[in-house]
Design goal:
Length: 303
């Protein structure tokens, strides 16, 4: 993708690219040698990783149950395949939703795009540059607001600029972000005094203040009541329409995906593959087209 003009700061192209497959049983090679079509995520340490030392050895000698448990744990693979054959391109300014079964790897895709995880095989690029770590231009919003309880709303929103020694220079952006999400009057409040919806608004403001180009949303509205959820969906849409950042949303709510997105990508069970990539036209939420797309997506999810 050709470089865009400097003033267009809120658009980006992201790519999860599938490389030519070379699947053979062989020792693990250097990252430069990987050319497989699979993206896999390191498995978190198993309990058998900690079962060392003379005491555990003695227990395995005298206890058949301990020995059986140890054998079962050591037989598990060191890595858990999460994503396979994922080849996904998102254009600048698009809003894409990922839907799929629980545990299929949707959040892993967001973590790869955020630079919090690295694929063992394959590559992830944003603006034609390979993602090798986190960047303030790529913000990740979680299901929980994750506000620091000892900081006020204003100080939480200013966390990014403060970490980059830009607090004073970006103070106007902090105040503007608070105004956009409707929290100007609660700038000096602490997280414990906020409702769930207000806390999520503060989380959105914290992301916006960083001049983000890619907004990654990992079920940020999943724990909210239905009314607050609809209100914040409207807020996110307004922010996207005004800021025109690129957005990738993980959700289990098909209606939410259709309401917010230009495209809905349906994933399979783990290891996840793309089952369908569905364009969502501009529509009336009660139209026959929405009902048809909803039925199609639910059918693909086996519901």
């Amino acid at each position: 993708m050709a470089a865009e003009p400097r003033e267009v700061v809120n658009r980006c192209l992201l790519v999860l690219q599938r490389l030519p497959s070379r699947r053979r049983s062989r020792p693990r090679q250097s990252p430069e040698a990987h050319r497989s079509s699979s993206l896999v995520c390191p498995r978190y340490p198993l309990s058998h990783d900690l079962e060392h030392g003379w005491l555990h050895l003695l227990l395995r000698q005298v206890s058949p149950a301990a020995r059986a448990r140890y054998d079962a744990e050591t037989a598990k693979p060191n890595q858990l395949p999460v994503l396979d054959d994922i080849d996904l391109t998102v254009a600048p300014g698009e809003f894409v939703s990922l839907v799929g079964p629980s545990g299929c790897g949707k959040s892993t895709i967001l973590r790869l795009l955020a630079g919090l995880e690295q694929p063992v095989e394959g590559r992830v690029t944003v603006d034609s540059k390979q993602v090798t770590g986190p960047s303030p231009l790529r913000a990740l919003a979680f299901q929980d607001a994750t506000l620091l309880p000892w900081r006020t709303v204003r100080d939480n929103v200013a966390l990014g600029p403060e970490a980059r020694n830009r607090r004073e220079r970006d103070q106007r952006r902090v105040e503007a972000a608070l105004q956009i999400v409707g929290l100007r009057d609660f700038a000096e409040a602490y997280p414990a005094t906020l409702s769930g919806g207000m806390a999520q608004r503060a989380s959105l403001a914290r992301a916006l203040v960083n001049r983000l180009r890619l907004f990654l949303l990992d079920e940020p509205l999943g724990k909210l009541d239905a009314l607050t959820r609809l209100q914040l969906q409207d807020e996110i849409l307004k922010l996207w329409e005004s800021q025109r950042f690129t957005a990738v949303l993980v959700t289990h709510d098909v209606d939410e995906a259709l309401r917010l997105s230009n495209r809905v990508v349906v994933l399979s069970e783990r290891p996840a593959r793309i089952v369908a990539d569905i364009e969502v036209p501009q529509h009336d939420e009660s139209s026959d087209e929405v009902r048809r797309l909803r039925h199609k997506i639910l059918s693909l999810l086996g519901r």
